[in-house]
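In pairs, describe these two lines:
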Amino acid sequence: MKASNAAPPADVLYRIGRWPDPLAWPPPAGSAAEPSRFDDPRNAFRVLYLAERRLGCFVESVARFRVPVVVLKEAGASVIPRGRVPASWRKMRCVGRLRLLPEQSWLDLRTMETAEVLRVEFALRLHQLGLADLDVSGLRGPSRALTRAIGRWAYDAGYQGIAYKSRFHDALDCWAVFEGAAVERVGLSEPIRRDDADLRAAAAHFGLAV
């Protein structure tokens, strides 16, 4: 059995990043307080995280502003505190678009075939991490040690990035694009306004004020 190769979307991918260039490559993962999902554990390449739908960018980005579970537990059902998307976060960021160029390979984590291949490849690592098994849900996290190792495995296997489902909703497809992949920027960066429809939809999904 072979891991599945994802077909790049015909349309653009979206990314929320810091103003003025949301498509700029981030600092090496080693300099981040909390490396992202498929960041290279050896810091040899950087990763851009994008979504097929503009809404997906906002869902992935504003989820961090939800009230922590421990606070919800202490508050009880009678009083549910509400998180807020800070204006400062919105003003410091913008939305960029790019297109993946053809004739590249993309590891598809959304398929059973890929999950089964990685289950064999990472059997020892799964045991070391105390994980009893691996399926498509496990490939989304929460173990960063595992997902970052998968990112490195994909890079070494010649993939230019990874296609995966958002951990917040199966209808949202996301992409991790490795440094060196052939991409094409599309259009100009868009500022994020308070009345942005996708921002408000994502905030409403999580019960956040804007």
Summary: The beta strands are 13-18, 47-51, 93-100, 106-108, 161-165, 173-178, 183-185, 190-191. Residues 19 and 92 are 6 Å apart (CA to CA).
